[in-house]
Amino acid sequence: MKINEQLFREKIKPLFSQAVFCSVATVDPEGKPHVSPIGSVVLIDMNRGWFFQKFTKNIPKNTERCEYATIMAVNDGKWFWLKSILKGRFKKPPAMRLLVKLGALRPANEAESQKFKRRVGLFKRTKGYQLMWSEMSEVREFEILEYKPVYIGKMTAQQFS
């Protein structure tokens, strides 16, 4: 799907920034698919993005063989879904897949660390924050090769207009 700057800014980037988590699908050395949940996908612009990689054991192994992956974000907002179901259409995309080429794992810079800390800052004083997010240090960049919308019949007919 061809994406222009306005569509990216108004519909796609907000979907990824508001998603509680995204999924990253890779293929293992035997050709079997593997999906990893990622809570930190950031789209920098229409062509690239990054995510923190800490707990994913399979992504590093799988990218040795194949550097391509699919990243999917789903709008999990209850009000979004209720309103859409009642109206019989999605005003914004309910989900989007990105076909990407994964880059190398590298240390996060200060701006990336701060962006993530703002996203999860509400939970800073919790035990879960300390266990999961207090030491996020490495990111994996990706190049966006293709946008692959998720269509749900007539409900999604106008999501990109």
Explain how this protein is built:
With 161 residues, the protein is α+β, with helices and mostly antiparallel strands. It has a single domain (5-152), classed as Electron Transport, Fmn-binding Protein, Chain A (Pnp Oxidase, Chain A, Roll), CATH 2.30.110. 30% of the residues lie in helices and 33% in strands. It contains five helices and seven strands, in the order αββββαβαβααβ. Strands 2-1-5-6-7-4-3 form a seven-stranded antiparallel beta sheet. It starts with a helix and ends in a 12-residue tail after the last strand. The relative contact order is 0.21.
> Which word captures the global form?
globular
The CATH topology turns out to be Pnp Oxidase, Chain A
Please summarize the sheet with the most strands.
7 strands, antiparallel
Distance from first to last alpha carbon: 13 Å
Low-confidence segments, given as residue ranges, are none
- At CATH level 2, the architecture is Roll
Helix content: 25-40%
Helix count equals: 5
Percentage of residues in DSSP E strands: 25-35%
Number of domains in the coordinates?
1
In total, the number of strands is 7
Strands across the major sheet, in which order?
2-1-5-6-7-4-3
| Rg from alpha-carbon coordinates | 16 Å
